Fold this protein.
Amino acid sequence: MRVTRRWLGASGGLALLALAVLAEPVAAQTSVNEELIFGLNRKLLYVAIPITVLVEGILFYTVYKYRNNDDPSPTQENRRLEITWTVATAIILLFVGLASYQVLGSAFIGGATAANPGDAEVTNLSEDYDGAQAPSEADAVEVEVVAAKYFWEVNYPQENVSGEQDTVVIPADRPVYIHVTSTDWLHAFHAPDLGLKQDAFPGEYNTIKTEVYEPGTYQLYCAEYCGVGHSQMLGTIEVLPGDEYDQWIEDQRSSGEAGGNETAGNETANATAGNETANATANGTAGNETTNATANATANGTDANATANGTS
Ligand SMILES: [Cu+2]
């Protein structure tokens, strides 16, 4: 009776496992990173499932077959069996090692350094830190993401576009290098749908490389507990088709040069300042009126940005 129940439990478990694997939709790959990570996951599952089935099968067969054996004797040495399981295990581990190495050694997963150890300088970043990896491709796009409590500042160092907040705009089908850093303490840049994750350390840059296939909007999270505002430290990654991205960058640049850009209810202003750094945040609620104003200004004799949102 007990054995029957175990059999039922076991076959139920295996059926669930098989269902989980089969039911997993073969979703369209969103990025190279995601493709590599889930490709490895699938490869390893193809190895793990037969092993699980084999081991559990032998286990339950043995339990059932010897259920009435009141006088068990230990197994005698079986050299052939020992050699078989040693060799089989070695082959499996070799496969797992090689498959993982292929993915971890890729610039998209192991860091841009892995495939591009050159020391080409990344210029025009907002902080004077080491660690940023320069692209090896001519058409690559570079984005600087500076984490701070509790928002993401996004700059485009090669385009002289800076001060975007919480929205990372990148083109599809082009290599993108994201230089991640922090101004206060630990944060982590995490976009699970794109297979992107990188720590944001104060004092250094970490570069992640990606190439996204699917234009769209993806959620960006902070994946390192950083304080009371951590759960609100969200952003989005807008992936635009290549030509739309070029147009967008062009718009940002010209609005920056014009010194101002206005939309109803939203105001963005860029000013030029001498040698100063200023941060101001003001929130006010009065009667039926809510006003949020955030101003960030960083200037090395270059520029200052102010963003103001008002709803009334
Ligand atoms: Cu955080």
Q: What stands out?
A: Residues 260-312 have pLDDT under 50 and may be disordered. Helices lie at 2-23, 32-65, 79-104, 112-115, 242-258. The two ends are 72 Å apart (CA to CA).
